[in-house]
């Protein structure tokens, strides 16, 4: 995996706009590096079995404010370390949620059923994430469906998950999938965007975001090797309000 909230009010509260320019957090338009992401105060990670055993207490103490854990893929794959990470991150007090890697050759309702079968329904969990990527090296499915099909099937999964968990799923969309299929789609969902060479506002057409994955080669205490790092597009106060809204259900 993984992978400016312009004039966007947080659901259920009256916080100010999270536009990065309004917050004074927008990086310079040129000379970008991953260091620009450190202008954002709230950082988190996403992990899968490939990070091995994680010391979640060390990760939290090292500044990890949130984590999304790979849970499922398609309709029959469960990440080997999902339940371990779910249990241990929660015990360490790291706000965590689960993400599903989308499979372009299976109906959305079937993928939703598999996710629900494996991911606990907990009031304090972050909203579920659907990770929509192209899969050119998959041994079983290299399809690139039409916009209409992706919107229909991902939307069907999202609807089922929202009914079950009481939280609208966040969508993780890399630049190529967005540009080729999803510009203007899924306006009702919060977005998690991937951009490791520029700010998302410079490389995503007409798209606001709540989370930004800015590197795949980050380092975090408690994790051996590299890990995806992310930021929340807002202030610390905005983050607290967002958590209060999105971890109730």
TrEMBL record:
One GO molecular-function entry: lysozyme activity
InterPro entries attached to this UniProt entry: GH, Glyco_hydro_25, Glyco_hydro_fam25_subgr
Keywords: Glycosidase, Hydrolase
PROSITE patterns (UniProt xref): GLYCOSYL_HYDROL_F25_2
GO biological process, one term: peptidoglycan catabolic process
SUPFAM superfamilies assigned to the protein according to its UniProt record, in alphabetical order: (Trans)glycosidases (SSF51445)
SMART domains from the UniProt entry: Glyco_25 (SM00641)
Family: Belongs to the glycosyl hydrolase 25 family.
Protein name: Glycosyl hydrolase family 25
